[in-house]
Automatic annotation (TrEMBL):
Keyword Lipid biosynthesis: no
SUPFAM superfamilies referenced in this protein's UniProt entry, alphabetically: Creatinase/aminopeptidase, Creatinase/prolidase N-terminal domain
GO MF annotations in UniProt: aminopeptidase activity
Catalytic activity: Release of any N-terminal amino acid, including proline, that is linked to proline, even from a dipeptide or tripeptide
Protein name (database record): Xaa-Pro aminopeptidase
One Pfam family cited in the UniProt record for this chain: Peptidase_M24
Provenance organism: Glycomyces niveus
EC annotation from Swiss-Prot or TrEMBL: 3.4.11.9
Amino acid sequence: MTGQRPPYAGTRYPKIKDVKGFTDFIATGWGTDPVPAAPVAGAAEAAADHRRRLSERLPGETLVVASGSAPTRNDDNAYPFRPDSDFVWLTGCQAEDAVLVMTPRPGGHDVRLYLPPPFRPGETGFFGDVNHGELWVGASPGLAEWADALGLDVEPAKHLDDLDIKGALTIQTTDAAFTAAHGLEPSALLDRHLSVLRMVKDAWEIAQMRLAVDATVDGFAAVAREIPRAVGEGLGERWLQGTFDRHARTHGNGTGYTTIVGSGPNAPVLHWVRCDGAVLPDAALLLDMGVEANSLYTADVTRTLPASGAFSPQQREVHDLVEKAHRAGMAQVRPGVPYLDFHFAAMEVVAQGLHDWGLLPVSVDEALSPPGQQHRRYLACGIGHHLGLDVHDCGHAEYEEYMGADLEPGVVMTVEPGLYFHAHDLTVPPELRGIGVRLEDDLLVTADGAEVLSGALPIDAAGVEAWTRARLKEAP
């Protein structure tokens, strides 16, 4: 090599922007075909109605909702970006570092979306900004394309600096530096209103939920077909977790939450996301999985499968009790019924079953009373939750608006009783230790009852066994 060494020779670029030969050459010779913004079909129209509903609840208030930024994973690497759910609900947009501002006017709000424009060829950011430079992230839609796609006025993010929005209501996830610069405080009132509004899904949202659930049901089949490899080749729980995650990424945006795959003694662990155990051939296999659709609405479904295709007598006994509780809970999901009735109905079945097995130190009535709850040792979690853009949707509503409300058409929720007998729990007989069973379905409250969106998967033990054996026979 002859001549001087260049001032830039590695993966970092603090000086390359000052090298004239490089900057002159990289600024020219690029195509300029515009890239359209492509929100999910119908998202922009649904979001416009969502904004209208929010505007009616908070007249006279300036509202600021941000999409957020990808958090740092390590050093200069970030986690994949997933926008804030409230922001998506209000805009249909999934862009990073975007901010929606709703300014009050007589009869409603003026709405503007602020976005960082992509850095095009000729701009230093084209090669110098790893988040928005097209050399790094690929060709991206510009502000005009976003405006056309969303039906919104869209301005560059830097124009936010010119706004006087002190005192506006904003959400908890809005960037701390931004809120500090504009004198904003996260508003529990705005969070609460958004949660309440999101509880009842409109027709477009329900269609998205159906897509997510249907893709999830297919994902269960894909996982079940891989059980023989997970067992026979020693690939274990993580192979099955990866199978579903790949399916979710192929048929949607990804998973709506971290996939749970628990075999044998790992099945009773409520959030077993490590998935680093073996898939035991004679054990029950708990699968809690959900595809997040491209619109970001997610499913949340659980089944407990016999890895061999047949439950042992003890596994089946546990499954039968959970099924009985599941059916009791689902029977309470209908309009006009207090939300928590499904929870209490399922818990009564569980408590009675555990008492019949001799596992409760008190009577059923004592266990179900507020000071008791001894049965919750084997079922410490709740029996269900709202479902939507978040797997535990609408969580910032007040208690009386969530737990204390009556169900109404358009609510989408889960019912998920289970029994979890840990391998080291000495209060249960040895033959039950290491058995964990959960059944979880996604239900839509209709005008006269409920529709089980995930009903394509069986819930009775015999049906689960037959379904599993059929998938095992399809194994590659």
